[in-house]
Amino acid sequence: MSEVNSFGGKDKDKVKAEDEDAIPSPFVGVEKSQVLQEAGAAFNDPQVVKLSPSKCCLLITKLLFLLSQGETFEGRDAETVFFAVTKLFQSQNTALRRMTYLFIKEVAESTDPENVIIVIQSLTKDMNSDVDLYRANAIRVLCKIIDASILGQIERYIKQALVDRNPLVSASALICGNQMAVDSDKREVVRRWVNEVQESVNSRAEMVQYHALALLYASKSHDRLAIGRIVQQYSKGSLNSPLAMCLLVRYTSKLLHEDMSATNSRAAYEFLENCLHHRHEMVIYEAARAMCRLPEAAPQDIMPAITVLQLFLSSPKPSLRFAAVRTLNEVAMKHPNAVTRCNEDMEGLIGDANKSIATLAITTLLKTGSEGGIDKLMKQIAGFMSDIGDEFKIVVVRAVRALCLKYPNKQRVMLNFLSNILREEGGFDFKKVIVDSILHLIEKIPQSKEAALFHLCEFIEDCEFNSLSAQILHVLGEMGPTTTHPAKFIRFIYNRVILENAHVRAAAVTALGKFGSQVEDLTESIIILLESSLQDDDDEVRDRATVSLSILKKVRDGEPTSKTVLVDPLPMSENALMRSLEIYQKRPAPGPLSFDALPVVEDALPARAEDGGDASGFDAGGADSGAGDLGGVSEPTPVPTREENYAEELLNMPEFANLGALFKSSRPEQLTESETEYLVTCVKHIFAEHVIFQFNVTNTIDDQLLKDVSVVMEDAENDAWAPIMTKSIDTLKYNVPAPVYVLMQRPEDSYQATFSVELQFKVLECDPKTGEAFDPDDEGAEEDYPVEDLELGTTDFIARVQINNFKSSWETVGKANEVLEKFELPQYKTLKEAITAVIDFLGLRACEGTDSIPHNADAHNVLLSGTFIGGAKVLARTAFSISPSGGSINLKIAVRSDDPAVPELVMECIQ
Amino acid sequence: MATPSVKGVVILDSADGSRMHAKYFAKSLRDQKAQLEFERSLFQKTRGQNARSEAEIVMLDNTVVVYRAGIDVIFYVCGEPDENELILTTILDAMYEALSGILRSHLEKRTLLDNLDLVLLTVDELVDGGLILETDPVAIANRVLMKGATGETPMNELTISQALQSARDQLAKSFRN
Description:
Number of strands of chain A: 16
CATH architecture of the domain at 6-256 in chain A: Alpha Horseshoe
Radius of gyration of chain A: 37 Å
Oligomer: heterodimer
Helix content of chain B: 40-55%
Largest sheet of chain A: 6 strands, antiparallel
Strand content of chain A: 5-15%
CATH architecture of the largest domain in chain B: 2-Layer Sandwich
Strand order of the largest sheet of chain B: 2-1-5-4-3
Number of helices of chain B: 6
Strand content of chain B: 15-25%
Membrane topology (chain B): Peripheral membrane protein
Distance between the termini of chain A: 64 Å
Structural class of chain A: alpha+beta
Largest sheet of chain B: 5 strands, antiparallel
Subunit structure (chain B): Oligomeric complex that consists of at least the alpha, beta, beta', gamma, delta, epsilon and zeta subunits.
Largest interface: A-B, 75 and 64 residues
Number of helices of chain A: 40
Shape of chain B: globular
InterPro entries (chain B): AP_mu_sigma_su (IPR022775), Coatomer_zeta (IPR039652), Longin-like_dom_sf (IPR011012)
Helix content of chain A: 40-55%
Distance between the termini of chain B: 54 Å
Structural class of chain B: alpha+beta
Domain AP complex mu/sigma subunit (chain B): 9-147
Keywords (chain B): Cytoplasm, Cytoplasmic vesicle, ER-Golgi transport, Golgi apparatus, Membrane, Protein transport, Transport
Number of domains of chain B: 2
């Protein structure tokens, strides 16, 4: 509490010292227990209450001061003080009464409702007082403490108050109505007040109008037509309260958002346009913002709004400039050209004393900037960067990156800008976002590669963040050897070997190895450099140096060797490799261990990042909520997936020992409703030539014991799909799930089947308490229990496997087996729906983050990959677009595979 | 986005950022720890800004904050991130001017503390449960000082027709007596 009470507490020790030069504030060193005691004594003494109202006021203020500093009154304390305060209603002093109201409101929430009831009578009396201020305040207090039943009792007084001739009383009653309208218990009562509320909307008092309109809307919010009428009626100009006008603008814009094509949408738009000429800035801005956000607004529709926002840009009021620039920034995402005309004013704002405004202005300029203006703009920004905080810088860096991708020809200027700020002071997040941006540019704009790599080299000469140094060294090793002058990089990398800590040294050694194995001229010199690392203090560095050296020496001597370890990226993620090895361990394939011999493991699906396409996502205050996850693809945390658990059980069974390695296991599929007597789910385990169906059966009847539970499967169309072995359950007790396994051999080239599934078992009656059969000799009654059909499809034979470099794999696989088709998917309305569904029924996995769809995109390409049973790669390039007529999604898809049969099979998956 | 709302009204010491008064309405800021954390970063962001004559503005933790400085205190009004900034400014200015009027002095921490009851009442007359109650500084000041509680409503709170009505009522009353 000391921190909470810092104001009171801090001065406590100094009270005496301060006594000497000035009278201390009454709240210096206020003690809770002491105040509670004093208040109890004073308020319970009728003489004090009557004669010293100001003393009582001060005590209440002290109690409230304690509350506002974070103190709480609990239990007995709360009760005592609350009772004492109720005594204050005996005083007729107006100031004291006002403080009493305030106090009850503040503590009502934390006080037992039983106790609160005792003040209701006094308050109801005040609610009918002659004094307007008593009436108004009493209503405000009452509505905070009453429940629905008491509301019923005093409802008539509130209804009177709603139309009270005193605007404060009326506004107070209306504001209470607004607060109770969100409470489900009281909402119904509030809706009965519509007539009074409607009358109040016509009041001339601004606050009455405002609250009445809000309450009217809340009471009718379930009725769209009524809302339409309200909006229509009041947009004719009867409202004089600017706040009420703002409400009306919001309601209008909501209607337009719900239904742009409504017949009165023209009138609604005109109303918004008229509001742009309102005398009050608040309303003008509200309307301008609403217009800019209209869902299908064309640039010319929002021009009037842009014009007024542009005027606001040069306002002397910071909040107005901020509001305008924030909204224009938002518009610039959708209609950059519409905002271009404000560029001159925006440039003026770069020097704004308010850094939020300056940053918003810059990012807007970066969005609207034309190619010709970039040099000048970057110069202006460079000057500005040194006086803002990291969180603003990050926003600017992201905007620069976006602009650079838009104008690749200007990459040199922007790259220089990025590398300059990279050398400035800054924290990790800031540096990281710059490095990521540069790497992103290298990837997207190949001609920037060499220059960018040198900038990064210079950065690691003086970089205090290990992980960034290691990341950059890795990138140098990947890309450096194929540049025109690879030798230039060696000095930078070797400096790291000499000067850095183990983490960075290890990364540098690997990078050197990559140069040595790929650039012939350098092999000899790099061998010499690496030899020194054999003496390194750190194990990891020595190991890496040893591996690299052994390969490099063979390369030098022209002996055959595999550079894979040094050069190629892993063909799967580290997580998949680990799990794959674990399964391999249980059942090693014959021959030497290689990547090809490992079982395929599906990567855990990454949690699909909800695209929080919030257009106003700019938070000038905190980079934490900044422009989302643009900073790089973050690896999903490894979660053990179902294969691990299932594979474990299955592979330990001798019956299934000769099937080879498990290819994949499906998700469990329910074959019964969840409330039936017997619950059945099925998991499909796919092997090279076999399929095992694992039926998990649960008996939900407590006085039954099931024996010899097995499953009969039949494919009506293709009897080649037939069980060759069934492993049944001997006894199945209540609520203990157990598996039935059915093994089938897959007919050649068949990947599809539909099975009817029937559970067969014997039922024995049993004692629900022990679960034992009453009669151990009972044979039981035979019973069949059909469940839903089970489908097997091509998708079951494809594993969702990620590949690291889609483009090179796509080219390696080649065009030979490519199949290209076009589909129209009328069942989907949005890209997101269509993409999610198509990925799902293809059974492939999206690569390189292409499944995250940019906000407002009307077309999107997704790269997909997977492995078909037998190990053939499946690669697909898909292009989704919203059909020009709207209402359906067009899909163009090209599938390639090593296996000529596979692309056709995959195509068939699209329904 | 429905009715404009206020997440909180805060008054901090402009020397050390300690709380003089704070009233939060938003659920996310009910917790004392969250409040102090919020105030700490609020003060970090806004200290030393010249916001004496015009409201300044900043975004912070998914909140739009407008603020004005007194002599040694800073007044803040916080709203939803998407709130109309000018509405928030109107509320802030109403509080600032009402307090200046009530205290008839510069807004100094000591004066505010000596009249803490009036400060608390001003906030209470400004915002009720997160909704805007009044934005006219004169009306707020009158209500805080309970002007008219012993007699009639102050004339400046009446419209002309109400004023006439009130005159008529009084006339009738005097006849009855």
